[in-house]
Amino acid sequence: MHRTRRQPPLRILSVSAEVAPYSKTGGLGDVASALPKALHQPDDETYPIQVTTLTPLYRCVREVLHKRKEEVRDTGVRISADLGDRVYQGKIYQLVQPYGPRLLFVHCPALYDRDGIYDDPEAKRQHGDNPIRFMFLCHAAMQLGQHLPEGVPDILHTHDWQTALLPLLKKFYNHPAWSHTKTVYTIHNLAYQGVFSPDWLPILRLPMWLMQMDMLEYFGAMNCMKAGIRFADAVTTVSPSYAKEIQATKFGEGLDTFISAWAPETRGILNGIDTSEWNPEEDRQIERTYSVKKFDGKFINRKALAHRFGLQAGPGDPIFGIVSRFAHQKGLDIVADLIPELITTGSRIVILGSGDPALEARFEELGKRFPKHVGVKVGFDAKLAHQIEAGADAFVMPSRYEPCGLNQMYSMRYGTIPIVHRVGGLRDTVTDTMETTARHGLATGFRFDVCDGDGLRWGLSRAVKTYRQDPRLWHQLRVTGMQQDFSWNRSAGEYLALYLQLLGRE
Ligand code: ADP
Ligand code: GLC
Predict the structure, then answer these.
(1) Which of 78, 173, 251, 392 has a Cα-to-Cα distance from 95 of 20 to 30 A?
(2) Which residue from 407, 411, 421, 423 has its CB within 8 A of the most atoms of ligand 1, so it is best to mutate?
(3) Gap between the Cα atoms of 479 and 394, Å rounded
(4) Is 0.85 surpassed by the pTM of this model?
């Protein structure tokens, strides 16, 4: 009998500033947590894969560990990096868990033991030392690599601006032990590039000649993201549409020509979702679990959500949900403008989010003005996010741009119809309801083409009309959405193919 030969184990080190549920401000945390889980298969007969993730041990990580009754143990690995006017020392801790990819935290209280993950613009005390904090994380990855039991990683996977200096560091470091290693850099959001004064270069012990246009220089400043794009062996982003969009002026955030020049092959690999965390059949954070076959539970969640926010919502009054960072990207100012008009259609809306203080105040004011129609919670609340996905009838995402977006996929999995701007990953995941897509059972939501009040009004009005006048079609949309495969298996396979291609192991 023919047996496939056992391949040498593939060793992957993923380095991220956020890893959910320990540290998360947005989708990066979700992805950095779920992708390693999907890839890790150390005991596979033909393709053993060992994944390790490295992230800082922020104060919030300790709090989550405590809440989850989890522990970390000291691995004995020590990190030291000469940055600024001192030598920073760190220790590597490992999450104690029976199975799953290895999760390591770099402990350096001087850099990470403080409130928040990044400097909070609202906080009284600004540290302003993010370049050092994340450069230290990059050094930790380089030093850790040589202490991993299975040997130096084959793939070093880095994410967003915070770890974008790592591919450059690996090149400069040029250690023979790392010579086989390939670097992959994933752009989760091109708008956050890590732009700092060039005065940081000597502090980070980087040479001034990096201040050239085809290196890190960016309008007289240094740009961390440029290092990832320029020095990684492969660049990816989180949806096929966004991969194209960032190579044109509109969404290129000033780096479109740089990307086209240095990483024209940038691949768009759609994010998956963690289907164990987001599963209406087993979700302990919601009022009642449900499935396509036993859908009644959805209505109990709807009632609970309405009750929690004191909304009066009869069965004919659709409840729209929003869970989001309040950032310009998300287009929520357009929603705020439209709310007084939206509620005249009998609609209700529940909003959870935080960020831009002006928008926080605006939504709170709308909540007070229309208490029976508008429910608002300002803050970050993972449990409530699940309850909104389960309880709302539809979910609104008018993002001006959206590299991938996860909430529209969570929504579909929870039988909650997404209403989205046709852009980036929203375009790649939501199938618009048209005569043909509906007839063939393909439609999953409502898309609108122009991201302004008129566009959103058009999207919302189509949803309200279908909800009220065509309950059969509405239910079909729910079922089709719930049956989509948004699991990481598909996308993890694409990352794996890329890793193997880079290593010449196809
Ligand atoms: P982004 O990363 O741009 O913020 P994504 O849609 O990729 O957008 O991911 C956002 C993630 O953060 C989702 O898991 C969402 O549920 C979560 N999230 C955003 N804001 C909040 C909040 N206020 N409370 C709880 N979860 C939130
Ligand atoms: C970013 C993007 C979001 C994406 C997430 C995870 O924060 O804004 O669209 O889903 O990263 O990749």
Answers:
(1) 173
(2) 407
(3) 13
(4) yes
